[in-house]
Amino acid sequence: MNLPANLDHLSPEQLRTLAAELIAKVGEKDRELHYRQTRIDQLTHEMAMIKRYQFGKRSEQLDSTQASLLEESIDADIAAIEEELAQLSTQPATPVEAPQKPRRAPLPANLPRTVIHHEPESSTCGCGCEMKRIGEDVAEKLDYVPGVFTVERHVRGKWVCATCETLIQAPVPAHVIDKGIPTAGLLAQVLVAKYADHLPLYRQEKIFARAGLALPRSTLGQWVGVCGVRLQPLVDALRQALLTHGVLHADETPVQMLDPGKKKTRRAYLWAYCPTSYESVRGVVYDFAPSRAGEHARAFLKDWQGKLVCDDYAGYKASFGAGVIELGCMAHARRKFYELHANHKSEVAGQTLAYIGMLYDVEREVATLSPDERRCVRQEKARAVADALHAWMISQRQKVPDGSAIAKALDYSLKRWEALTRYLDDGNAPIDNNWVENQIRPWAIGRSNWLFAGSLRAGQRAAAVMSLVRSAQLNGLDPHAYLKDVLERLPTQRASAISDLLPHRWTPAAP
């Protein structure tokens, strides 16, 4: 706010207006300071708890593999908290209660080196005299391509004017991890290996050792933690882009999460949200939550009002009462009849499957059509099949005893018939929820490798990075090339232009 040079010239009304603006400004600053201090207190408390797990007595119930996974999660969590504290603090960032770190050893001299020079655009001083080079600063960054380490040697020459003694030097290039040794390419390699290839850090440590340089998993964990914090604004932008769609898929799957305080794992949940496969813009956002409570879905969707494709889980019901329209999943309904037909050769289930098969025949026919064309064909061909199926189910339900397996299968579909057939009236709506189930499959594969999430924060970080990795894959991108470019550009990217780095909008930086 720019104050007038002389307040004496202001009228009483102008003074009152100015005073009100100043009071509002002070109140806004007070609220911001209160939020920052509250968040700092929360993070400091979380840091203390994590360090107590780190330096306290190890649980005898954890085997060596489980202990390794716990340790790498703790290292990443501590680095992430320190990064968040640094962003919140107005003072120069210092790690909370951080032990004195040993001096970093120089990178091995036998590694190939690429020299990158950074010099001023002009060697002419402002006084008009020609400057001379008097020295240089050198910083080395560790890079990696699969199987091979190399070193980027950044040389920043020092130039001085002999007349006026002005000293100039090219600025230090911005990096995601300030004063760290990894290039964006190495960071991308660690993230993709961990979250796309499902390689825990202790396995990556062994892979890097075979390539000629042993990188401790504690160091790798710190890199992962900082990258998770720095990438979060991009994930938030991806979520906002997703919520602009009128039809979304949603599904959830259990994930084991370690509870170090109780020396065992407990069940947490990964939620997945994505637009339909009919959309040209592809993407998925994962949300890691400590439970399956419906409040997590409501918190993610917030004020979004559209059509949600999901199963019959009760956690979504509250959203349906707040403006969200339910779209049922025909695949879930079909699955119940398929099990009866496969296991017991049920004739009722077999006939029902034949009807549902005809509905899917129509879907294969309209898969590449426009929404309007898709709706018209559905009305012409699928509507009659759906009506016949509904009548068949009602007639058969009257013939089977209550409580039987076939009665339960029929009741599931009949009670949800309106939601199951809403897709017929909307060319943008799919017949089932299989698309989002396919997006959850990478987590199911990963569970056999990383066993459990090391903490709630670790699960949330995995969900964030995997949202970007999987969205990149859905848009036909190489996740390593994508993340490398994003990590190179992120430190200097304007907050207002962060959405330009989303997978469906990303274009490689000009060489």
TrEMBL record:
Q: Tell me the domain of life.
A: Bacteria
Residue ranges annotated as transmembrane are none
Q: Where is the Transposase TnpC homeodomain domain?
A: 42-116
| Occurrences of domain Transposase IS66 zinc-finger binding (ranges) | 123-165
One of its Pfam families is DDE_Tnp_IS66_C
Q: Which InterPro entries match?
A: IS66_C, Transposase-related, Transposase_IS66_central, Transposase_TnpC_homeodom, Znf_dom_IS66
Q: Which residues form the Transposase IS66 C-terminal domain?
A: 467-504
Coiled coil (residue ranges): none
- Give start and end of each Transposase IS66 central domain: 179-460
* NCBIfam families (alphabetical): transpos_IS66
Record-given protein name: IS66 family transposase
